[in-house]
């Protein structure tokens, strides 16, 4: 049996991240880990989080690191001074403090290069959401990074299960129909959550791993 593990919004919380990685690697001898973005901002250890994520993992594990809206804001803030105030007001100040100043170019480039989506045989992984009114290949970057679902909303998602973060709640992780939200508000005193999927079985998670902040 092979597993995919989807980990929700980290937001600079290095201790829960390290404990989550340990829990995942104890759960199975190998697998795919999909990080859903928002590694930075609001928490006080964004630099350490990016250092750990960028360092990666060893075979036979595979890590896929998606872009979140906070990585997008950070990249925009350094590319255009007019976008800087928006980022700083959304947790970017804590990120710069964690670096002792400016974010280095190599971390900005890594953030800029993140994919917006990962699709496997049974599931779609994105940071925020998708709009079922448009084909999967025509989803807008804005929706993938910023969309929020009304409570209880679900769709068929092209025959796959949708996995996302972005919309925090202390009651998450929650599966609603064909959609699972795993942003459990770690940086707001909640927990860091991971949804576990059997790669050979369609549908929602078979388990959750949760680490308290």
UniProtKB/TrEMBL annotation:
Pfam families: Metallophos. One of its GO terms (cellular component) is cytoplasm. Signal peptide: none annotated. One of its GO terms (biological process) is RNA decapping. InterPro entries: Ap4A_hydrolase, Calcineurin-like_PHP, Metallo-depent_PP-like. This is Serine/threonine protein phosphatase. It comes from the Bacteria. One of its GO terms (molecular function) is phosphatase activity. Residues 6-176 form the Calcineurin-like phosphoesterase domain.
């Amino acid at each position: 049996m092979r597993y995919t593990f989807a980990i929700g919004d980290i937001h600079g919380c290095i201790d829960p991240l390290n404990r989550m990685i340990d829990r995942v690697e104890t759960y199975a001898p190998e697998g795919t880990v999909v990080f859903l973005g928002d590694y930075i901002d609001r928490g006080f250890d964004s630099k350490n989080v990016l250092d750990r994520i960028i360092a990666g993992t060893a075979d036979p594990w595979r890590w896929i690191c998606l872009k979140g809206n906070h990585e997008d804001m950070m990249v925009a803030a350094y590319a255009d001074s007019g976008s800087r105030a928006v980022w700083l007001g959304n947790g970017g100040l804590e990120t710069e403090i964690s670096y002792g100043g400016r974010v280095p170019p190599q971390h900005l480039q890594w953030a800029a290069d993140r994919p917006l989506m990962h699709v496997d045989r049974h599931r779609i992984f994105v940071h925020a959401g998708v709009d079922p009114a448009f084909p999967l290949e025509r989803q807008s970057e804005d929706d993938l990074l910023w969309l929020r679902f009304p409570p209880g909303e679900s769709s068929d998602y092209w025959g796959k299960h949708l996995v996302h973060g972005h919309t925090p709640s202390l009651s998450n992780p929650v599966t609603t129909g064909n959609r699972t939200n795993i942003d459990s508000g770690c940086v707001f005193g909640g927990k860091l959550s991971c949804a576990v999927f059997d790669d050979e079985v369609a549908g929602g998670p078979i388990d959750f791993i949760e680490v308290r902040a």
